[in-house]
Amino acid sequence: MDGQTEVVNRSLSTMLKAVMRGSHKSWDAYLPHIEFAYNKVVHKNTNISPFEVVYGFNPLTPLDLLPLPNPQTYVHKEGATKAEFVKKMHEKVKEQIQQKTEKYVKYNNKGKKKIIFEEGDLFWLHLRKDKFPSKRKSKLSPQDDGPLQVLKKINNNAYKLDLPA
After folding, report:
1. Three-state SS string across the chain, please?
2. Which of 15, 58, 123, 131 sits at a 20 to 30 Å CA gap from 113?
3. Largest CA distance in the chain
4. Residue-wise pLDDT tens digits, 108-146
5. What order do you get walking across the sheet with 158-161 strand by strand?
6. What pLDDT sits at residue 132?
7. What is the pTM assigned to this prediction?
8. Residue 125 and residue 134: Cα distance in Å, rounded?
9. pLDDT > 70? residue 76
10. For 51-59, what is the mean pLDDT?
């Protein structure tokens, strides 16, 4: 699994444990409530809830109905207006995720040197035993191979290499 799924699963299991309070026999009855609660929470990356991303609004809960809403605050929207609203919401979410991704890339790449090879360049390659088991039979064998040549540049992160047989 990827890290994001593991974090979500951990959060959901923590919520489930808190709601169940020791009654371990009927955990499946609590799942819809946990799902609803998770989807209503505002997420850090998007700054809105998953319900808002999909539907364009957060559903009302019984707590939201205690003070009756002012009729002027909840305006019924036509289908085309609603669709446009959801499209704008998706653009906003996409932009927010892109900004967070750029922030994470900047933070994680701080101090790293960007190296771009061109076709014909020579370099040394480190073949680890766990990544290349057929090339590395023993941890005592030499760790580096080279000089190797770049045969074709696919993009700045992918190259076709002249690997040893």
Report:
1. CCHHHHHHHHHHHHHHHHHHCCCCCCHHHHHHHHHHHHHHCCCCCCCCCHHHHHHCCCCCCHHHHCCCCCCCCCCCCCHHHHHHHHHHHHHHHHHHHHHHHHHHHHHHCCCCCCCCCCCCCEEEEECCCCCCCCCCCCCCCCCEEEEEEEEEEEECCEEEECCCC
2. 131
3. 76
4. 888 888 888 888 888 887 766 666 656 656 666 666 667
5. 122-126, 144-155, 158-161
6. 60
7. 0.42
8. 15
9. no
10. 87
Burial class (CB in 10 A: 0-12, 13-18, 19+), 52: buried
- Rounded to whole angstroms, the Cα distance separating 45 from 98 reads 9
pLDDT single digits (tens) 89-110:
788 888 888 898 889 888 888 8
